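Tutorial, part two.
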Amino acid sequence: MSGDDHATSDDDADIDAVLFDLDGTLVEYERPPGELLDLAFESAGEDSFFDVGEYFDRFGDHLAPGVSIAEGRANCFAEIAADRGHAPERGRAVADAFAAERDHSRVECLPGARETLDELADDHALGVVTNGPPEMQTTKLEAAGLADCFETVVFAGHDAAAKPDPEPSEVALADLGATADRAVHVGNSLSSDVAGAHAAGVGSVWVPSEEGVEPDPEPHYALSSLERLADSERPWKSD
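Running the prediction step on this input gives:
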C-alpha cells in the first residue's frame, strides 16, 4: 500500500458518528512491549526463550470473554514455555514480571490524536470501542488526557463481546443514537478493527501501524496517518 490516502468505498454519505480503537490508534505505551519483555525475563531470572513477535502472534488465542489480559498473557507465556521444553511455571513467572513492569498510566497520544478528536467533535458523536478491561483502559484514557473526548466508551470483552464481534460497535452506536450506515470505526488492526467494523455494517478507516502491510480484509478507507483525519476533507466525503 502506498503512503497516500485512498478510499475503496463508493459510499459518500455523511457520517454522524466516529468510533475509535484505543491502543495503537490513539495512544501507545511510552515503553514498547519488546523492551518490557526483555525486562520481564531479566526480573524473572530467565534467559529469553521467545520474542515479542511470538507473543503477539499467539496472544489472541488466549483471550476470551471473562479472561483478563493478565490471565491470557500468563496462559500464553506458559504455553510458549512448554513448547520450548520448559516448565509452564517459568512462562508464568515471566508473565507476572511483565505485568509488574507494565504501567498503564505511562502512555502518550499518537501524533494527531488530540487534534483529530477536537476537529471531529464539532460535528460528530465520538466513541471508543476497545478490547481491554475497564480499569486498564480508563487509566490510559485519563493519562493521555482523552477521557472527556468521548460520549461513550465500550470495553469490548467486558461490556460486550470482544472485537471483531459486531456487538461492541452496536452497543456504542446505540449509546450515541447513531446508525451503522452513518458511522465509521477508526483503528490500526485489520483483524479486530476493520473486521469488527464490517461485521457491524460500519465503515472502516484503517490507520496502519507499519508500512508495507497488505490489508486483509480490505478497509473502506486507508489513511497514511491519523493526522489526516483532522483535515476538513474527510475520506468518507465525496469531492
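Helices lie at 33-44, 52-59, 69-83, 88-101, 113-120, 134-143, 167-176, 190-199. In part three we will examine how such features are distributed along the chain.
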